[in-house]
Design goal:
The complex is a heterodimer of chains A (about 170) and B (about 70). Chain A is mostly helical and about 170 residues long. Helix content of chain A is about 75%, strand content about 0%. Chain A is built from 9 helices and no strands. Chain A starts with a helix and ends in a 5-residue tail after the last helix. In chain B, α1 packs antiparallel against α3. Chain B has one domain. The chains are: A mainly alpha (about 170), B mainly alpha (about 70). Chains A and B meet through α2, α3, α4 and α5 of A and α2 and α3 of B.
Chain lengths: ~170, ~70
Amino acid sequence: MEGPTPVSALIHAATMVTAGIFLVIRCSHLIDLSETTLKLMVIFGVLTSVFSGLIALGQWDLKKIIAFSTCSQLGYMFAICGISSYSLSFFHLTTHAFFKALLFLTAGYIIHMYSGEQDIRKMGSVIKLSPFAYIMMLIASLSLMGFIGFSGFYSKEALIHVFYIKSEFNQLF
Amino acid sequence: MNRIGDFFIVGALIVFFKYFKSTDVSVILALSDYFKDVYFDSGFCKISVIDLASFFIFLGAVGKSAQLGLHT
């Protein structure tokens, strides 16, 4: 799934890879009737979330790091579908589309600024070259990690909260 | 890996067309409550039609959203 950065911003953040999540949300009434599929969705979603985060730790390419972060967030959305909280999943899809598009477009700006260099080991002092790109990247990253006051906080916190309370009542499976 | 997921979506559409006689989402969702006790008998195992269709949709979503096992 390679492409120019605006294309990545479109297909990775909002439209293409989230089509699977939207399919599950659209067919939620049908999938709710099948217990086995719901259990499988929780297992797959949680495993994907953990493993894509781990893979992203070992990457040096700026765009690949963001792409694997998208995979990790998709795992969250898949897992929350498995415990029948479809509206939360769609809320996280929407907020994630916005801040991930900002992250991808800023990454394209930075890659152009370094004349096509994608390796993060060869980058540095972006704040001196372009403070605008630095601040935008900071805003999107804070939203992605769920900092208080950003859109990522409201969706991701609710998502993790539901998981925590359900596991306390042993309702996950 | 996207195309492997598409095959499962086609499988789900075949199941829908055989049992629900339609591929319209609103029709399928409206009728899905009546198919709880309908079973698909493949010779050596019986599986519920709801289970089969939702399993196909799940695998299609796994292929489309690049979940574990079908990621690049």
